[in-house]
Write a structure and sequence with these properties.
Blueprint: H1 8-52, H2 56-96, H3 101-104, H4 108-117, H5 121-164, H6 171-197, H7 201-204, H8 206-222, H9 229-236, H10 239-259, H11 286-292, E1 299-301, E2 305-306, E3 310-316, H12 319-328, H13 354-357, H14 359-369, E4 370-374, E5 377-379, E6 384-387, E7 393-400, E8 407-419, E9 422-435
């Protein structure tokens, strides 16, 4: 069928599908809106969890998914509202036909003005139809724009990581090559953006088109624009599509600015974003995490108020934890780093692997690096591996506080670090709690 797109029969089929597409649009919009509203909360929870576990790649993917969901929800809801108005207008036209200005019996001045500004009711129905059709198509085009921006930023990050910071390459060569590639992408992004907002000005001039063509060709792969380019040019060759594109972008920025407003109750405090000597964040208390269904903020204790003669301390297992262990015990660092995304389909028997036989050394090093302090007193602690909810790995220990005085106290988890050749300890978390004997 794709080879017969010039066939008159195929063009007739397309015309008929265009006329009846509103039914499919409404069905797809309805199912999509329901699915998107259902997906937002799980994606948001997963993004928060990835952020707290410092899983950068997973976090970026989930944030892109959240932005895409937000764009689709807004556009599809607007599409459904406009389609509803269009169906209502069609029903009204069936009952009363076109607008009869003579029957209104207005003065000549108002009649001429309304005929000019309001015009035919059929024109109003046709305008609504155009808005509905374009809104539905542009919803998915905007998702591609989000992906294009993401891949551009990701390209810069990959160059910095795999070329500039690659110790396997000569320093001078990697610096020159890396900086040159980053400058090309930065300036290419600027030129591409200018061409986008001017709707192809750089392609229209003979001298600018020669300079811009190599950039355009490279960025067509970086931004994956070769997948959606027909949609873009179909919008740009239509004045109505151009106007709508320019209207939607300021609307998105306005919505983003409006949603950023919140009430500030104090000149000194906004929110308890993290726990410290003066603030207590609910994400640092295990009982509140379970009650409010939120994620742990890297470290957590059992509760704000402790009545037992011991305190439970939980630490999320992140890539940074293992990196800190490798710094103090380089023998534990494997030749091939197996961290990251892996398929569960491939089953490998690792019972005799070197990493498995060194687990005891691994945990001893971990407990050498991370220690617990309450107020100004160091406490004996021995973290062991455990699982939090949703099968996420964590580290857990219990500390005896039976000799602690009643009242408010401050718990700290200290981490050893090497600074200028010396080993120092600094607090990676501060969590206040109250101890009252039961």
């Amino acid at each position: 069928m794709s080879s017969d797109y010039n066939n008159p029969a195929f063009k007739k089929l397309l015309q008929r599908l265009q006329e009846e597409s509103w039914q499919l649009e409404l069905i797809i919009s309805g199912f999509a809106i329901f699915g998107l509203f259902t997906a937002v909360e799980p994606i948001s929870d997963a993004a928060n969890l990835a952020q707290s576990k410092q899983q950068l790649v997973k976090f970026i993917v989930l944030v892109i998914a959240l932005i895409s969901c937000a764009i689709l929800i807004f556009n599809l809801l607007l599409h459904v509202v406009l389609r509803g108005l269009w169906i209502g207008a069609l029903g009204l036209r069936y009952v009363s036909g076109d607008i009869d200005y003579d029957a209104l019996n207005y003065s000549e001045k108002f009649t001429k003005y309304l005929k000019k500004k309001v015009g035919s009711f059929d024109k109003y129905v046709a305008t609504l139809e155009n808005y509905c059709s374009v809104m539905f198509a542009i919803s998915y085009l905007l998702i591609f724009y989000v992906l294009a921006l993401t891949f551009t930023i990701l390209s810069i990050a990959l160059i910095a990581n795999y070329i500039i910071d690659n110790d396997n390459l000569p320093e001078t060569a990697r610096t020159i090559l890396g900086v040159a590639l980053i400058l090309f992408i930065v300036f290419g992004t600027i030129f591409t953006f200018i061409d986008f907002i001017t709707q192809g000005w750089l392609k229209k001039k003979k001298w600018t088109s020669k300079i811009y063509f190599p950039i355009y060709w490279v960025f067509s792969f970086i931004t994956l624009s070769f997948l959606y380019r027909p949609l873009v040019y179909n919008f740009l060759d239509n004045k109505f599509g151009k106007r709508l594109s320019f209207v939607l972008v300021p609307i998105y920025f306005a919505i983003l600015i409006m949603t950023s407003f919140n009430y500030k109750p104090s000149n000194y405090f906004d929110r308890a974003d993290f726990s410290s000597e003066l603030t207590a964040n609910r994400r640092n208390y295990i009982d509140l995490v379970k009650e409010d269904n939120v994620t742990i903020d890297e470290f957590a204790i059992s509760s704000k108020v402790i009545t037992e003669p011991y305190i439970n301390i939980f630490m999320e297992f992140t890539d940074h934890v293992e990196n800190n262990i490798f710094r103090f015990n380089p023998d534990l660092e494997p030749e091939k780093d197996k961290r990251g995304l892996q398929s569960n389909i491939i089953i490998i028997n690792d019972y005799d692997s070197p990493e498995r036989t060194k687990r005891k050394d691994y945990m001893e090093t971990l407990n050498h690096v991370y220690t617990v302090r309450i107020d100004s007193t160091d406490y004996d602690s021995e973290f062991i591996l455990t699982e939090s909810k949703k099968e996420n790995l964590g580290l857990e220990t219990f500390v005896s506080i039976k000799d602690l005085e009643e009242g408010k106290h401050l718990l700290k988890v200290l981490r050893k670090r090497i600074k200028k050749g010396d080993t120092v300890r600094h607090a990676v978390c501060r969590i206040p709690f109250w101890y009252f004997k039961d």
